[in-house]
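Collaboration report, partner site 2.

Our partner group contributed sequences for two proteins of shared interest, and the home lab folded both. The records are reproduced in the order in which they were received, starting with the first partner submission.
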Amino acid sequence: MRVFSRVLNNLPLAIFDRLRLNSDKTQFIWVDSRQQVANVTVTEILLDGHSITTSHNVSCLGVVTSRCFYQLRQLWSVRPTLSTNNARMLAHAFIASRVDYCNSILYQTAVVHLRPLQLVLNAAVCLIVKKRKWDSITPTIRDNLHRLLVRQRVEFKICTSC
C-alpha cells in the first residue's frame, strides 16, 4: 500500500490539472482475488488532498461509453461506403470489443449502470443495419444479428471464459 501511495503522490501535476477530483463522485475499487481483497485493510485513500473511499462495486463507466459514441460518430461518416459485413466487422472491432473488455467488472452491476452500454450497442446495431435511432431495433438485434443484451452478454462471456 505504501508503494501505491507513493506512486499516486508522485503523479505529475499535469494530471491533476486535467482531472478535477470530486471525492463525492470518485470511487476506488480493489480488483484482485477474493483472498487478496480480504487481506486489504485500507478503506480510504488520500489523493491530492481528497479522501477517496474504496468500494466493492463499480457505479460509473462513462469513459467507455463516451469513447464508443465517438467511434460510432466516426463510423457513421464512412457508413455509406461500407457493406453490411464491413460495417459489422468495424462495429465489432471498435465498439463490442470495448464493451466486452470490462465484463468481469460488469458482472452483477445494477441495470441503471448497464443502460449506457446498452445504448452504445443499440447505436452500433443502427449503424450496421442503417436504421435511425428512433426505429425499433430489438427484433433486429435478436433475429438478424443474433446479439445478446448487455447483461446477458456479460453473463455469457464470463461463463465461457471459465
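Second partner submission, folded after the first:
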Amino acid sequence: MLSERRILVDTSTWIEAMRGGGRAAEALASLTRSDRVVTCDLVIAELLAGALAAPEHAQVRRCLEAVRHVATPDGLGWRAGEIARALRGRDKRVPATDLLIAATAEHYGLVLAHCDRHYETIAEEADLELVRIPALQGSDDGAG
C-alpha cells in the first residue's frame, strides 16, 4: 500500500505516461488525482529539454504547472555525491541527474515514483521509499 506521503514523480514516469499511455498513464493519473504529486527543478528541466515540438512542449508545461513544486535543497550536490561515492565503491554507477532527484526525494521525505532501474540501485545507499510504475514493455532502459 502506498503511504500517504507526497510523491515525487520522476522524469521516467512522465515520459512513459506521455509516450504510450497504458499502465504508466493510469498510474500517473491516479497519483495526480490524489493531489500528493510534486515535481522538482531537475524533472522540469529534463522534461522541457525533451519536448521539442511546440504542442508537446505546451502539454508538458501544462502537466507540470498542475502539480506542486519543491525547491532544490541547499547542499543537494553533497548528498548526491556521497551516495554516488558509496555506490562506486561497489562498482555501481548511476546518472548524476538520478542521484540529484533521489537526494531531493530523500531530503523532503517524498515517495519516489519511477520507471527507472537506477533508483533501485540508489536506494541501496539512500533512505528512499520507491514506487515502481510499470513501464511500457521493453522500454525500461534506465533512462530518465
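Feedback sent to the partner group on the second submission included the following. Residues 81 and 99 are 8 Å apart (CA to CA). The longest helix spans residues 76-88.
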